[in-house]
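Hi R.,

As promised on Friday, here is the backbone we talked about, encoded as structure tokens. Could you run it through your design pipeline when you get a chance and send me back a sequence?
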């Protein structure tokens, strides 16, 4: 279904939005809850990905289909590899079958896992014969997706001898690794991260029942940072539930959006974004620790006529789509000029935005949401708009609540 976003302005200079729990935190905690059922979770993400994760963990079926959910594919590969005596075939959408899984599979095999490819070598679907893993030493290249690393760390405390993971080379996506280790700490699992070696000890004690609250999703918050950046000085949007000492790498939005004249004030479990200035300079950012917000930032810069140079984006090519190619294609349809490499994006300054351009979303929720704030500057069409349900099902309703004019 396509949505037309008519050129809009916010209904009020001060607005409030409550955002569902972080998909990244939710999926990690859902897996840990499956391993340690005594824990209860609150404010779990209502995203498609987290619902798929929940259903997959509860499923007793041999074939588990996780559709487009990349995080679920990585985490569940590790999870099902240690479910002793259970055979599982893990599969997904056509695009999921094109997304590499070999690095994780090889690491799990190093630990003793029994995993085979059902179709193409290195890609889903995969067949897993669950078994006890007794080996504990494994190595990975440090610049791989942090989801491979986190998948190993999440199951580590249930391995007979824990895990000693050596990361070879320069480590990327450190915040996501630290998020995983912090959540392990929260449930009482001991770990250390020294240099390039991460150690997780096996869990030898009974866990005490505990309720864990998932912080709201910072990636989802990024679209409101963009909206405030495109509004007049004095505009405010308050978002909840967020904390200043967040585990999520995308909390770097607070510092990044100062470049766009947006300040952030925390009060209790909420944060208020306020537009303070309109003096913009060319932007150079290394997003190696927060690649999921690259689309939002690129579109914000385009809307404001700002040039930008974004680097550290090598993981974007293996997401729901090749996000670098998709960004270039859609921004240029709107009148922008973009140059990309396999790990960077350069946007030239532009003072025009074409009207009523149809934006393709490529089965990628972030494409739909990143381009939505442009409705503050021009009318546009978002194709397959409900793709947002992957991470933020109420996104369009929330935009309408603050004044966006949207029709089907």
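Update: got your reply. Pasting your designed sequence below so it's all in one thread:
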């Amino acid at each position: 279904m396509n949505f037309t976003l008519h050129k809009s302005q916010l209904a009020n200079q001060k607005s409030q939005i409550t955002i569902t729990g972080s998909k990244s935190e939710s999926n990690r905690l859902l897996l840990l809850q499956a391993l340690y059922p005594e824990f209860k979770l609150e404010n779990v993400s209502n995203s498609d990905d987290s619902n798929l994760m929940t259903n997959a963990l509860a499923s007793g079926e041999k074939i588990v289909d996780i559709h487009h959910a990349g995080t679920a594919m990585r985490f569940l590969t590790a999870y099902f590899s240690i479910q002793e005596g259970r055979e599982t075939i893990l599969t997904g959408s056509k695009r999921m079958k094109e997304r590499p899984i070999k690095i994780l599979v090889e690491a799990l095999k190093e630990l003793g896992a029994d995993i085979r490819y059902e179709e193409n070598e290195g890609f889903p679907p995969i067949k897993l014969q669950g078994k006890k893993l007794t080996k504990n030493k494994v190595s990975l290249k440090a610049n791989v997706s942090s989801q491979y690393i986190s998948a190993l760390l999440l199951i580590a405390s249930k391995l007979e001898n824990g895990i000693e993971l050596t990361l070879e080379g320069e480590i990327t996506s450190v915040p996501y690794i630290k998020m995983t280790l912090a959540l392990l700490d929260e449930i009482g699992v001991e770990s250390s991260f020294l240099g390039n070696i991460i150690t997780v000890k096996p869990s030898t004690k009974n866990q005490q029942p505990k309720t864990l609250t998932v912080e709201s999703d910072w990636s989802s918050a990024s679209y409101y940072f963009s909206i405030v950046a495109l509004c007049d000085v004095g505009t405010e949007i308050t978002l909840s539930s967020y904390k200043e000492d967040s585990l999520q790498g995308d909390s770097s939005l607070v510092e990044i959006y100062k470049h766009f004249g947006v300040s952030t004030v925390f009060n209790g479990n909420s944060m208020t974004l306020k537009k303070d200035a309109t003096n913009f300079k060319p932007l150079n950012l290394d997003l190696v620790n927060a690649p999921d917000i690259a689309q939002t930032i690129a579109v914000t810069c385009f809307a404001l006529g700002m040039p930008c140079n974004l680097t550290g984006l090598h993981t974007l090519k293996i997401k729901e789509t090749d996000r670098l190619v998709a960004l270039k294609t859609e921004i240029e349809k709107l009148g922008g000029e973009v140059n990309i490499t396999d790990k960077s994006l350069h946007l030239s300054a532009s003072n025009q935005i074409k009207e009523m351009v149809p934006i393709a979303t490529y089965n990628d929720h972030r494409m739909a949401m990143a381009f939505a704030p442009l409705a503050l500057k021009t009318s546009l069409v978002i194709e397959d708009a409900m793709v947002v349900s992957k991470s933020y099902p109420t996104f369009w309703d929330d935009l309408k609540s603050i004044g966006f004019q949207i029709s089907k």
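One thing I noticed while checking it: The first strand starts at residue 3 and ends at 6.

Thanks again,
M.
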